[in-house]
Amino acid sequence: MKPSLLVVARLPDALQHQLNTHFDCHHATQLDEASLAALAPRLRGIAANGESSVTRALIARLPALEIIAVFGVGYDGIDVEAAREHAVHVTHTPDVLTDDVADFAIALLLATARRVVSADRFVRRGQWPAGQYPLSTRVSGKRLGIVGLGRIGQAIAQRAAAFGMHLAYTGRSRKTDVSYAWFPDPQTLAANVDFLVVCAYGGPTTRALIDARVLQALGPNGLLINVARGSVIDETALVNALRENTIGGAGLDVFCHEPQVPAALFDLDNVVLTPHMASGTASTRQAMADLTFDNLDAHFSGRPLPTPVP
Ligand code: 8YV
User: Fold this and answer.
1) Which residues does 158 contact at the CB level (< 8 Å), separation at least 6?
2) What angle do CA 190, 100, 119 make, to 5 degrees?
3) Annotated catalytic residue: which of 229, 235, 285, 299?
4) pTM exceeds 0.85
5) What is the whole-number distance in angstroms between the Cα of residue 117 and the centre of ligand 1?
6) What proportion of the chain, given as a percentage, has pLDDT over 90?
7) Residue 250 has pLDDT above 90, yes or no
8) Which residues on neighbouring strands pair with residue 127, listed in sequence order?
9) Phi and psi, residue 142, nearest 5°
10) 130 CA from centroid of ligand 1 (Å)
11) Domains and CATH numbers, the chain
12) Ligand 1 site: residues with CB under 6 angstroms?
């Protein structure tokens, strides 16, 4: 008999198809309370994504649960502690998306500093014949601060180094294997850089880590890029800072209440907004899908999990 899975995210069609072939899949959005209660004793796995929420309460409701497989590297929406207490494995998809997310952070930085998106609007609106487009901000050779020097942060640093940028970072601990300047907190880092890129873990430990004081320290010419989680930034403070030009601009791929984006940002020309797409290339999403499936398949075939969360 195929193991029963609860699917709590909209997954890529090919992955969902593969899951349907190997598992008895049930979509959380299609289940009412009574049907979930009836299914609960036989649900052995959950398929989720980086934005999913799998709470302690849900884990406690599923006595047969053995594994939660996340299609994504971030698993801040999963109550990993509750999973551990119930001996439930949690897997994710690290490494395969690192390059694409780092590429995208640089793309957002260039787009924001060089005002690529509003320049495109300028041309399309037929404004060019009427005058010059305003000058933009140089990126090469500037000071880049990285909040969270993990796999993705280090890949961003490598790319930025090729632009002759001076690198600094803040994170939970000072790394002994890199030569970049280290600052103990985001505020001090922000005060010492031109651009701040956020690629820290989401979750309670980093909630609103980038607050009004950090934005103030970044200053009116500073740019903020976020490819991590919306929750890492105090979104209200960010909207205020952008409106009042306390910071120079922002490139944002993630938001607090996706897919909702604060409407106040829509009218601002100093922001570039993208729909949580940093890992969204066809090849990387396929690699993430393969890894998500491999983890589930390994578990139910009694093989070691390829990528359990640390
Ligand atoms: C999403 C992400 O998972 O990997 C992560 O943590 O945030 C993304 O790659 C992806 O958008 C699928 O939902």
Assistant:
1) 102
2) 65
3) 229
4) yes
5) 24
6) 99
7) yes
8) none
9) -85, 180
10) 42
11) 4-95+283-301 (3.40.50.720), 98-273 (3.40.50.720)
12) 49-51, 71-74, 97, 276, 279
